[in-house]
């Protein structure tokens, strides 16, 4: 009877404590069979009328069950409990052995075995009881550890979050600093550029002053020489001499007169260049007054357009205006800013005319529509003016030179190379603004004026 | 009319002589030349009250046209000659100064001789 209790108890204990049904279904199946065997054995035990030899079946069965449980890796955690059953089974086996081998002695010590078996039987349950208790403590500890782990996990997460936040903050700061450095660099470049321009402007004005006096003499003397030639011609008429000689002398005088006229013509050309150069030094000397920027831009756009139309009847371009009515009047030097507009528009119209001419010469793109656009915008205490054309554009390698005095791409005699240089001076030195250019060669050019308004 | 031209450029002399050849020949104008402010003052000292009109450059080495103008206005308060100042293009500072110290007129370089001729004839 005790074998049955022990085996059933052991099987149930293993099954319930390890939850073998869900975790180890294969072993669970074996344990269920073992339980069946236990029930069968107890049944047979009563069928055979509680014979003592039947105990040997129990011995074989319980030992093999113990060995199976003991050797199986999955049940390792329960070894202490399983071990506690060894003394009980061992003593039972020993008692039956003694009973068979030494029946005489057995009768004398039979009570010792009975006591030992009872003790072993009790021991089984005592150990089981302790094991259970210990397991509970372990489970409790495990739970605690789990809780601690969860707590530390939560802490870790919050730390990670903090670190992330800091990282984002630092990255943002870094980006801001990089942006600032970039801004500083571009400002430095602009400063260097404007410094260069200012010194070039001064140099230009200085050169102009030096050239002006000798140039005046050239012009004056050549002019007076033309008059002298006329007088000479009149005087010759008064003298009587052979017609042949007279014609010859008159021919020479007419050549001389023509030469002097040529000198005057080219002297005047030089003079207009010198005048342009001198305007550099006067670029920021005017008085500021409230001016309607939109009206000023519009006026000079039309002026430049009709100026070009007068020279070239074929020329045509669409004038597009996009004015911000909110600008109203701003404090500027109207003559100077007008000159800037005139220069920029003249260049824009020249660029579209040039592109049309080139396209016509190569015989392609007859659908080209020249367009010059002005747009103004007031924003954040500044006026933004853009003059855009879809003309020839500016090649990259000369983009940095266009604001330098005397730089021109126009054929000799058509441009002095002072227009943009002076415009640059007027916008930057005269108005404290910015003049820059954005261009795609063969596509478009956009000049951007930014004026601060106080 | 006696006119004194003051300029540090000596070629001014031949230029004036050629430009006003007819007027000089007909005796309308009589030009004298001085090549510095000092020389001009000396000339005025030697020919008191003879000169009616002075044409002076402003930018000259040594005594400038403005200083010459000041001296003339100080030394000849009784019978003052007319003084016309000539300076480089667009020099508004000199223009204002010249007018302040008593210049009668102002010409800017390059000198337009037709305009000058009209002005001189009007003074006659």
TrEMBL record, chain A:
Which residues are listed as membrane-spanning? 30-47, 53-70, 82-105, 111-131
- The coiled-coil segments of this chain are 167-197
Molecular function (Gene Ontology), one example: phosphorelay sensor kinase activity
**Top-level taxon of origin:** Bacteria
User: Where would I find the Histidine kinase domain in this sequence?
Assistant: 206-454
Q: Which SMART domains match?
A: HATPase_c
Documented EC number(s): 2.7.13.3
Give the enzyme class.
Answer: transferase
A single Pfam family it belongs to is: HATPase_c
From the UniProt record, list the reaction(s) this protein catalyses.
ATP + protein L-histidine = ADP + protein N-phospho-L-histidine
Entry keyword set? Coiled coil, Kinase, Membrane, Phosphoprotein, Transferase, Transmembrane, Transmembrane helix
Q: Which PANTHER family does the record match to this protein?
A: SENSOR HISTIDINE KINASE, TWO-COMPONENT SENSOR PPRA
By what name is this protein known? histidine kinase
Species annotation:
Dyadobacter flavalbus
UniProtKB/TrEMBL annotation, chain B:
PROSITE patterns in the record, alphabetically? RESPONSE_REGULATORY
List residues of the Response regulatory domain. 2-124
Q: Which domain of life is it from?
A: Bacteria
Q: Which organism is it from?
A: Dyadobacter flavalbus
SUPFAM superfamilies in the record, alphabetically?
CheY-like
4-aspartylphosphate: which positions carry it? 57
InterPro entries linked: Bact_response_regulator, CheY-like_superfamily, Sig_transdc_resp-reg_receiver
- The molecule here is called Response regulator
Q: One biological-process term from Gene Ontology?
A: phosphorelay signal transduction system
Which Pfam families does the record match to this protein? Response_reg
Q: Which UniProt keywords apply?
A: Phosphoprotein
């Amino acid at each position: 009877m005790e074998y049955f209790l022990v085996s059933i108890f052991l099987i149930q204990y293993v099954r319930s404590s390890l939850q073998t049904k869900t975790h180890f279904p294969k072993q669970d199946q074996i344990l269920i069979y073992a339980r069946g065997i236990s029930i069968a054995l107890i049944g047979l035990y009563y069928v055979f009328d509680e014979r003592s030899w039947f105990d040997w079946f129990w011995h074989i069965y319980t030992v093999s069950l113990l060995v199976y449980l003991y050797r199986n890796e999955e049940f390792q955690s329960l070894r202490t409990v399983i071990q506690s059953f060894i003394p009980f089974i061992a003593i039972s086996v020993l008692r039956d052995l003694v009973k068979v081998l030494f029946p005489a002695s057995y009768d004398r010590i039979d009570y010792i075995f009975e006591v030992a078996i009872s003790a072993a039987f009790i021991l089984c349950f005592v150990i089981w009881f302790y094991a259970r208790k210990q397991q509970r403590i372990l489970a409790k500890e495990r739970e605690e550890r789990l809780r601690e782990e969860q707590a530390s996990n939560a802490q870790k997460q919050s730390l990670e979050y903090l670190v992330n936040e800091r990282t984002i903050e630092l990255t943002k700061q870094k980006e801001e600093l990089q942006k600032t450095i970039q801004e500083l660099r571009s400002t430095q470049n602009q400063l260097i550029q404007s410094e260069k321009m200012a010194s070039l402007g001064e140099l230009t004005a200085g050169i102009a002053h030096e050239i002006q006096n000798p140039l005046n003499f050239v012009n004056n003397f050549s002019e007076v020489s033309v008059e002298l030639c006329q007088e000479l011609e009149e005087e010759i008429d008064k003298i009587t001499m052979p017609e042949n000689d007279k014609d010859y002398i008159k021919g020479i005088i007419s050549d001389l007169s023509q030469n002097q006229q040529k000198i005057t013509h080219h002297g005047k050309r030089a003079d207009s260049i010198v005048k342009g150069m001198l305007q550099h030094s006067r670029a920021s000397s005017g008085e500021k007054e409230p001016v309607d920027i939109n009206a000023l831009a519009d006026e000079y756009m039309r002026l430049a357009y009709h100026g070009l139309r007068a020279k070239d009847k074929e020329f045509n371009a669409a004038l597009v205006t996009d004015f911000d009515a909110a600008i109203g009047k701003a404090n500027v030097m109207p003559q100077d800013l007008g000159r800037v507009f005139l220069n920029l528009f003249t260049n824009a119209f020249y660029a579209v005319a040039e592109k049309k001419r080139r396209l016509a010469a190569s015989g392609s793109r007859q659908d080209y529509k020249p367009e010059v656009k002005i747009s103004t915008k007031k924003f954040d205490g500044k006026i933004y003016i853009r003059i855009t054309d879809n003309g020839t554009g500016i090649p990259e390698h000369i983009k940095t030179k266009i604001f330098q005095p005397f730089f021109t791409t126009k054929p000799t005699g058509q441009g002095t190379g002072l227009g943009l240089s002076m415009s640059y001076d007027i916008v930057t030195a005269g108005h404290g603004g910015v003049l820059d250019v954005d261009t795609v060669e063969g596509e478009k050019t956009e000049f951007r004026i930014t004026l601060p308004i106080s | 009319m006696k006119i004194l031209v003051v300029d540090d450029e000596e070629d001014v002399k031949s230029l004036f002589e050629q430009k006003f050849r007819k007027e000089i020949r007909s005796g309308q104008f009589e030009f004298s030349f001085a090549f510095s402010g000092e020389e001009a003052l000396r000339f005025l000292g030697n020919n008191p009250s003879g000169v009616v009109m002075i044409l002076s450059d402003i930018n000259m080495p040594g005594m400038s046209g403005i200083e010459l103008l000041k001296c003339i206005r100080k030394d000849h308060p009784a019978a003052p000659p007319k003084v016309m100042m000539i300076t480089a293009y667009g020099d508004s500072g000199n223009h204002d100064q010249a007018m302040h110290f008593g210049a009668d007129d102002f010409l800017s370089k390059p000198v337009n001789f037709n305009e000058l001729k009209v002005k001189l004839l009007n003074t006659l």
